[in-house]
Every structure is written in structure tokens, then in C-alpha cells.
């Protein structure tokens, strides 16, 4: 039996087309894109073509795309860069209680430097209410950072509605779109955002490359100092081969978005319905509407997500209990706690995130194996009987 990989929100396999595009830039087109000779110019051409491809994925201009090492760096650059550049105006930032650790941890560090951070609550489906955001804004608020789609439960935020509030108050809006891009349409103009983070390895591109969209006119202080690369916002020689791979992955993701989304919806519904029918005590944590089409988060009462994940792994099925960045943590999911789940329920969840190559047969196999795994984990979780 081949292994079944249902952890695509953690990472995706590199597409063959992406690898093929990258190889020349690891071999013959190896030049430094900052060099002015022919070999350098060839590398520069590949880099700028990739920038245009990534820009096209989110309907921005190529000049508004900065390449980074990934989503974490993009988020850190957005948060730190804006707050450093806006110190004279204020040092208050608003985010939500369900953000990825690459948002919450930098803000926790910035709080030690005098930045005031407000964590917005969300409703029971993980969405930020517009009036809650409006009430949280202060005269010294300089930045709002909200993820377009949640990494654990898949909730999609109404960013276009929220951005109208930030625009009225002249507050910069950053959106983490790492999980959303390539799965749902992302148009920075429709969303009305000032900054937006992306990562290649979530869309079948290489690891170690990401991007930050910076709307023209948005002030941003660099985190890295050195050369003038990336419009003097991110010093250091660019990872040309990875950027080229990112560009190809972005193009393919845009071309296949509708087809893949329909595929995800069909399989996710089959998986969700099958689990609810076959496993007593299962509860869906993902919202019914406004959710990533490939993401299903389900809690299993009287079981631990960690135990379920390991049991499925032994059967050749890869899933997760939440963010890969939080793997190994004994703490309950902060996302599920924010939805109002109690700690035990938050520890009982599994995240199934489907990919473009996931098949109906894969889902059938999961539905056959999962109930047995749940039964075993529940029996172990309840412990030996006290009856004599």
C-alpha cells in the first residue's frame, strides 16, 4: 500500500515542472543576479521573470514583490518593518488570537520592546467581526495583521470588508496569505491590503523561498542590511533557482486553481461525511462556509489528537494535529481554544489537508482505517476498568 499524505497545509511535494525549471539555475545559469556581466544578467532575467509570475498569482505589480526565505520571514519583515518605520506615529498593533506562530511570536518579542499588541477574539467559526476590529483601533494603531485563511481550521476571513475599516482609519493592513494562495483566488486590489505574505512550498514549490507583497507607497524598514537587493528592503544575494521554482509553481497554481478547488471540495465532503457517519463523538471544527476547500479539522471526543496521528502514521496515513510549526507541543491548540473549545476538545483534533493528487481511493482507505484507530486510542485513553 502506498502512503497517503494528507498534510498539505504543512508542505507540498515539489512538482516535476518546478524542479525542471530550477535545475538550469543551479547549473548553467548560476550567476549572481547583481553581477553586470552576461552570466549575471541571465540569472537576473530568471529572477525578474519569476517576480512577474508571483505577482500575477495575486494580481499585483512585479515591482511590489520582495523575495524572502519564506512565509515566516515575510511575516517578520511586515511586522517589524512597518512598526520600525512608524514609531513616530505610534506602536500599537492589532492581530487575532488564531494567527500562526510566525505572527504571534514576533509580536510577543516586540511587546518586550514597548509595542502594544491587541489580540482580537473570533466567533465560533474563527472569523473576525468588523465591529470588533473597529472598536480595537486606537489613534496610535499603525498596523493590523490578519491571516486570510487559518492554517488549522481553514477559516477564510472577510478581508475586503475589514480593509475598508483600516483604510478609513489610515492603518496599514498586513495579511498572511500563506495558506490561501493557490487554493482560493487572491487579488490584493480586491482585498485592499497593504502587505501580503506568500510561501512557495505550500503551492508545490521549493522550500526556502517566499515573498512579501508591499503596496507602492507603504513604508517598510529593512531587517537585513548590506547590499541593495530587493529594492533595499532585503539585503543578500537572492536564491535565484528557488525564486524561479516559485514563479513556475505560482503560474501552475493560478492555472489549476478552479479545477483543484472543485477536487478538494468533493473529497473533503466525502471525508467529513464519512467520518461523522462512522465515528461516534466526532465534531467538525472547520466552518461550513468560508473555509479552505482542502482543509478539514475534526475533534474526536475521549481521544488525543497525538495518539490518533501516531496510529494513522503506523497505518501509512500522514495527518497532523495542527500547525507543523507547533508539532511536538503538549499544549492544546490556541486556535481551537479561541473558538471556545475546552482544552480536552482542543487536544483531540486532527487536521486533514488534501492535495491535488489525493484520490477518492485514498479517502476510502482513510475512512476504513480511522474508526479502528479511534477505537484503540479511546480505549487506551480511558485506561483500565475499575470494575472487579
Strand proportion, as a percent range, falls in 5-15%
> Helicity level, as a percent range?
40-55%
Distance between the termini: 42 Å
Helix-strand pattern? EHHEHEHEHEHEHEEHHEEHEHHEH
| Low-pLDDT segments, ≥5 res | none
What's this, in brief?
This protein is of the alpha/beta class.
Secondary structure layout:
Blueprint: E1 4-5, H1 16-26, H2 38-57, E2 65-68, H3 71-85, E3 92-96, H4 101-111, E4 116-120, H5 130-136, E5 141-147, H6 159-168, E6 172-176, H7 188-191, E7 195-199, E8 210-214, H8 229-232, H9 240-278, E9 282-284, E10 295-300, H10 305-314, E11 317-318, H11 334-338, H12 343-346, E12 349-353, H13 360-382
Parallel strand pairs: 1-11, 3-4, 3-5, 5-6, 6-7
Antiparallel strand pairs: 2-8, 7-8, 9-10, 10-12
Helix pairs in contact: 1-9, 2-9, 3-4, 9-13, 10-13
Structural features, described:
This protein has a 7-stranded mixed β-sheet with strand order 2-8-7-6-5-3-4, with helices on both faces. A 3-stranded antiparallel β-sheet has the order 9-10-12. A two-stranded parallel sheet has the order 1-11. Helix 3 runs parallel beside helix 4 and helix 10 crosses helix 13. Helix 6 links the parallel strand 5 and strand 6. Helices cover 42% and strands 14% of the residues. The protein has 2 domains: 134 residues, Aspartate Aminotransferase, domain 1 (Alpha-Beta Complex), CATH 3.90.1150; 237 residues, Aspartate Aminotransferase, domain 2 (3-Layer(aba) Sandwich). The protein is of the alpha/beta class and 388 residues long. It contains 13 helices and 12 strands.
Amino acid at each position: 500500500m502506498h502512503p497517503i499524505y494528507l498534510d498539505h497545509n504543512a508542505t507540498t511535494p515539489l512538482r516535476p515542472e518546478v524542479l525542471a525549471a530550477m535545475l538550469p539555475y543551479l547549473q548553467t545559469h548560476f550567476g549572481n543576479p547583481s553581477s553586470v556581466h552576461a552570466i549575471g544578467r541571465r540569472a537576473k532575467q530568471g529572477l525578474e521573470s519569476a517576480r512577474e509570475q508571483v505577482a500575477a498569482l495575486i494580481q499585483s505589480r512585479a515591482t511590489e514583490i520582495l523575495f524572502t526565505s519564506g512565509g515566516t520571514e515575510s511575516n517578520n519583515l511586515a511586522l517589524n518593518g512597518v512598526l520600525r518605520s512608524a514609531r513616530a506615529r505610534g506602536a500599537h498593533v492589532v492581530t487575532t488570537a488564531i494567527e500562526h506562530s510566525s505572527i504571534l511570536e514576533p509580536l510577543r518579542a516586540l511587546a518586550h520592546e514597548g509595542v502594544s499588541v491587541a489580540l482580537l477574539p473570533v466567533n465560533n467559526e474563527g472569523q473576525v467581526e468588523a465591529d470588533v476590529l473597529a472598536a480595537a483601533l486606537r489613534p496610535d494603531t499603525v498596523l493590523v495583521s490578519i491571516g486570510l485563511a487559518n492554517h488549522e481550521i481553514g477559516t477564510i476571513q472577510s478581508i475586503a470588508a475589514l480593509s475598508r475599516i483600516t483604510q478609513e482609519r489610515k492603518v496599514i493592513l498586513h495579511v498572511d496569505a500563506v495558506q490561501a494562495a493557490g487554493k482560493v483566488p487572491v487579488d490584493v486590489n480586491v482585498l485592499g491590503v497593504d502587505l501580503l505574505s506568500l510561501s512557495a512550498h505550500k503551492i508545490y514549490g521549493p522550500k526556502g523561498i517566499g515573498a512579501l507583497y508591499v503596496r507602492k507607497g507603504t513604508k517598510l524598514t529593512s531587517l537585513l542590511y548590506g547590499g541593495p537587493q530587493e529594492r533595499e528592503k532585503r539585503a543578500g544575494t537572492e536564491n535565484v533557482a528557488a525564486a524561479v521554482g516559485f514563479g513556475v509553481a505560482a503560474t501552475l497554481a493560478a492555472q489549476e486553481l478552479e479545477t483543484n478547488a472543485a477536487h478538494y471540495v468533493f473529497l473533503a465532503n466525502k471525508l467529513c461525511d464519512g467520518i461523522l457517519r462512522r465515528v461516534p463523538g466526532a465534531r467538525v471544527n472547520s466552518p461550513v462556509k468560508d473555509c479552505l476547500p482542502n482543509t478539514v479539522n475534526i475533534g474526536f471526543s475521549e481521544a488525543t489528537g497525538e495518539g490518533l496521528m501516531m496510529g494513522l502514521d503506523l497505518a501509512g496515513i500522514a495527518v497532523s494535529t495542527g500547525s507543523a510549526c507547533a508539532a511536538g507541543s503538549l499544549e492544546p491548540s490556541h486556535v481551537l481554544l479561541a473558538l471556545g473549545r475546552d482544552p480536552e476538545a482542543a487536544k483531540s483534533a486532527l487536521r486533514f489537508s488534501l492535495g491535488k493528487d489525493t484520490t477518492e481511493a485514498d479517502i476510502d482507505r482513510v475512512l476504513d482505517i480511522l474508526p479502528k484507530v479511534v477505537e484503540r486510542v479511546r480505549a487506551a485513553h480511558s485506561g483500565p476498568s475499575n470494575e472487579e
